[in-house]
Structure formats: structure tokens, C-alpha cells
Design goal:
It is built from five helices and no strands. The chain is mainly α and 94 residues long. The protein has one domain. It is elongated.
């Protein structure tokens, strides 16, 4: 339940989908109630939002992995500008 709320799903919709989680068949009245158009649209929008977040997280994960690969001790170029920019004694103005 907490993960649904943390994912951004409104509490009212958490209550709607919670009985269904873990059960892929209608075995209770609560799990089988029909959604109204607003709930359906909100759940579809939530899925799209999750998909976008997964895409961003995947890109970020790949970029961090690539950064770690490039910055590993055996492959790092000592003249690399990135390694100089990461010097903790160097301030960066944003």
C-alpha cells in the first residue's frame, strides 16, 4: 500500500486497486467493482506517469553505470576533464 502512495497514486484509487493486488481474478466484490470513467482515466494516467519515471530512471541508471565504468581506476584517463571537475577543492558555479 505504501508503495502505491509513494508512486503518486491518490489514496482513493489505492483503496480501489488494493483488493486486486496479488489476485488476478475477481474473487471478491470489492475487487470486481467497475471503475467509473474518472477512475479509469486517472489509473491510465498513473500508468503513463510510472512508465515515464521508469524510462528516466533507466536512462539515469545507464548513465551512472557508464560513468562508473569510465571512471574506474584501470580505465580513467588522468587528463580527463571530468576527473578534474570532480576535485572536491574546486568550486562549481551553477
Amino acid at each position: 500500500m505504501r508503495e502505491l502512495i509513494e508512486s503518486g497514486l491518490p489514496t482513493r484509487l489505492v483503496r480501489t486497486v488494493l483488493p486486486w493486488l496479488g489476485h488476478q481474478e475477481c474473487n471478491s466484490h470489492a475487487a470486481c467493482e467497475a471503475l467509473d470513467e474518472e477512475e479509469t482515466a486517472a489509473l491510465r494516467q498513473h500508468i503513463e506517469n510510472i512508465d515515464r519515471r521508469i524510462e528516466v530512471l533507466s536512462r539515469n541508471r545507464s548513465a551512472i553505470g557508464e560513468y562508473l565504468r569510465l571512471m574506474s581506476a584501470d580505465t580513467r584517463d588522468p587528463d580527463c576533464r571530468t576527473s578534474q571537475a570532480l576535485d572536491p577543492d574546486t568550486s562549481v558555479n551553477l
